[in-house]
Amino acid sequence: MTELVATEEGGVRWRDRRIPHESGGVRMDHHPDRDTALASAENLNPTLAAALAGRDMPEPDKTSLTLKVRKALQSRQRLDTEEALMLVEAVRRHRDTPRQPPNALRLHPDTEPFRDALARELLIYPYLRVALLSADGRTVVVYRDANDLWSKPYYAGEKTAVSAMRARIANGFKYHQDQHWGQVKARIRAELLPRANQLLQLASVQRMLAEALARGERVLVSNGIVFWYEPDGQLGWMIKSTTSDKGEDGATLWQEGTIISTNHGRLVVLPYIKENGDLVRGHTKNGPGDGRAKPRHPDHYVEIPFRELRGDLMIGLFGELPYE
Predict the structure, then answer these.
(1) Closest listed residue to residue 225, CA positions, set 237, 243, 246, 241
(2) Rounded-to-integer distance, Cα 258 and Cα 279, Å
(3) d(CA 18, CA 3)
(4) Phi, psi of 2 (to 5 degrees)
(5) pTM (two decimals)
(6) Please, which pLDDT band fits residue 246 given cuts at 50, 70 and 90?
């Protein structure tokens, strides 16, 4: 578990969570699996938020610190849901990839104790070039070469463990897990946009959008994808993608904010709050290399509130549709 702590300069940073021990020292906060860790965090966060609210400090400083905390949490949560979506799509793309039975895997002799663990991993992620495995109290990483031979096991330190977990996404889109992670995800986002456009053809999504339009909602946002309703020219619902000025992808969303569209740009900058408390309206624009966005006639400027969809809804749409 990691925790967000205040710095002497008035900022915040993430560090490994430290729990005071009766001996006078501290211990790290370890959990056996992701679900247990998430449940623990959900119970802990309200307590930490209450402690921050009760701090004896000048009100402007407290407001600034609270905003920074919210921004840091939002940024982590967005990354988490985005990567979960990418993982679902990576697995979906390889649902027809042949799976090897455990006894058919070609292993280095030292990797033999991990054969069953590797087979279980490849059953879900058959495209992996590196795998993080646990057996007999050991956690290791193994690598697959061009001849489908798996290497000897290597100790899984934090860096190699992170790399192996990223491989579950990157390898599924034919990228290397050690490439620049931000660049890899940017390329994956570009690959996912045509897939996102397919959502508009699904009856279930059409029903969801029709219900939203009946409620007066014309912009729905989830995980970097925007469902945008354009009445002029009978365009109807279309897909845009989100961005933030100055690359502030973790900017704190101003939930009551509106988007003012003066052009037909393909990118939507969502309303956000600066660390000094200034509220920045949302707007539309084109990306680098797109040229200037086609302007709207002043009579057709639109000011639209937006609503965020739950991340798990989009994950469902890209994989199974649990509400159908």
Answers:
(1) 241
(2) 10
(3) 8
(4) -110, 160
(5) 0.70
(6) very low
